TrEMBL record:
Subcellular location: Endoplasmic reticulum membrane
The UniProt record lists the keyword Glycoprotein: no
PANTHER family noted in UniProt: GPI MANNOSYLTRANSFERASE 2
MF-aspect GO terms: alpha-1,6-mannosyltransferase activity; GPI mannosyltransferase activity
TM helices/strands, residue ranges: 85-107, 119-140, 160-193, 205-223, 266-287, 294-312, 346-368
Keyword list, A-Z: Endoplasmic reticulum, Glycosyltransferase, GPI-anchor biosynthesis, Membrane, Signal, Transferase, Transmembrane, Transmembrane helix
Keyword ATP-binding carried by entry: no
Pathway it works in: Glycolipid biosynthesis; glycosylphosphatidylinositol-anchor biosynthesis
Taxonomic path: Bacteria, Bacillati, Actinomycetota, Actinomycetes, Kitasatosporales
Organism: Streptomyces adustus
Protein name: Glycosyltransferase RgtA/B/C/D-like domain-containing protein
Length: 370
């Protein structure tokens, strides 16, 4: 595991160095960009003052901080209370530690499925994604991925209580965190069916894990519903105020048509390419016939990212936790490294260059929501 984590940390440090150089070139402070950009400001506001902030950036647009899930700001608040760090520094510390924990969990899953070499490649590729700069920022994707990876590892090793508890925490991290609960429940249902057929009974721990898994996500949605006066629909009304809704991909297809017919800022066609690559990787993953929990988890994340309306440029970030998509290229990279080491080095170098340069562009230059 040390090699994999070392490669991941080295990749993120190199990306941070490129970002810092770019930021100084355009007279910006890299730590401020990493710790206080876009959604980070909302999370830090919740950590400092609790929920209750609403802004109206345009006619009929109501943006409420209730759209942001509570676990990350709670952790930031805890760090600020126990250390001399301010909000931005605490947010970065939580995210960086979560990113390392996520890399460890991804490595464990990869080792269990395909061995250490593929696991190392899997972690490295995750750290070199075009949007992996987010893993160095005060954002929630590292936290969700950490809980998701370890929950899936617990499912694969049949530790159902741990799987359910970690899935519940994932559900408190981000809106798409329910993908982890879906994976745990689906795997538990399949295992229960097999256990009943073979042994005539189902271990109580299995049911307990399945019940625990969706509690975090469900509890927050009900809390928002109660606060807004619409128990089951309140959270979705809050999301609609941000322009986010699930429309089976209609808005994404409309926006794709606009991108293909008219000129757009570089961020948008790049997002389209990344999403298209994710779809291709998803097909390759299914052809590889991975375990059921990985299929369910990745499928739900893909469905939410592709079927959600609004913030097209953020879709690559929404897919960052979908690390199982990288299993096919990780296996291919290991085969290439064994047969033609120089070719693998060139591939990794190209991916690193794209990740570092594009990440610096996104954060320091693009002025587009991440």
């Amino acid at each position: 595991m040390g090699t994999a984590v070392g490669l991941f940390v080295a990749a993120r440090l190199a990306g941070a160095a490129v970002l810092a150089t770019t930021a100084w070139t355009v007279d910006k402070q890299p730590l401020a960009l990493l710790g206080r950009s876009w959604d980070s400001l909302w999370y830090l506001g919740i950590a400092a003052h609790g929920y209750g902030r609403v802004q109206h950036p345009g006619p009929g647009v109501v943006q409420s901080d209730l759209a942001f899930f509570p676990l990350y700001p709670a952790l930031v608040r805890g760090v600020t209370a126990l250390s001399p760090l301010g909000g931005g520094g605490a947010g970065l510390l939580v995210s960086w530690l979560a990113a390392v924990a996520a890399a460890c969990g991804i490595y464990r899953c990869g080792t269990l499925l395909h061995g250490r070499a593929v696991a190392c490649a899997l972690v490295l590729l995750w750290g070199l994604l075009p949007h992996s700069v987010v893993l160095s920022m005060a954002y929630t994707e590292p936290l969700l991925t950490a809980f998701a990876a370890w929950s899936l590892y617990a499912v694969l090793t049949r530790h159902w209580l741990w799987a359910g508890a970690l899935a519940a925490l994932a559900g408190l991290s981000r809106p798409n965190g329910f993908a982890v609960a879906a994976a745990v429940v689906a795997a538990a249902a399949c295992e229960a069916w097999h256990q009943r057929r073979q042994l005539g009974r189902v271990p109580p721990g299995l049911w307990a894990g399945a019940v625990l898994a969706p509690l975090g996500w469900s509890a927050y949605l009900l809390w928002v519903g109660r606060r807004t006066g619409d128990l089951f629909g309140g959270y979705f009304r809050v999301q609609a105020g941000w322009g986010s809704r699930f429309d089976l991909g209609h808005d994404a297809l409309r926006f794709t048509r606009i991108l293909l017919l008219y000129k757009a800022r570089f961020v948008f066609p790049m997002s389209l390419v990344i999403v298209a690559a994710a779809v291709l990787l998803y097909v390759l993953l299914l052809l590889d016939r991975p375990p059921l929990p990985l299929v369910v988890y990745t499928s739900v994340l893909m469905l939410v990212a592709l079927g959600g309306a609004g913030f097209f440029e953020c879709k690559p970030r929404f897919l960052l936790p979908a690390f199982p998509l990288l299993l096919p290229p990780a296996r291919a990279l290991v085969r290439t490294a064994r047969a033609r080491p120089w070719h693998a080095t060139v591939v990794v170098g190209a991916l690193a260059g794209l990740s570092f340069v594009y990440g610096a562009y996104l954060v320091a230059i693009a002025h587009a929501p991440l």
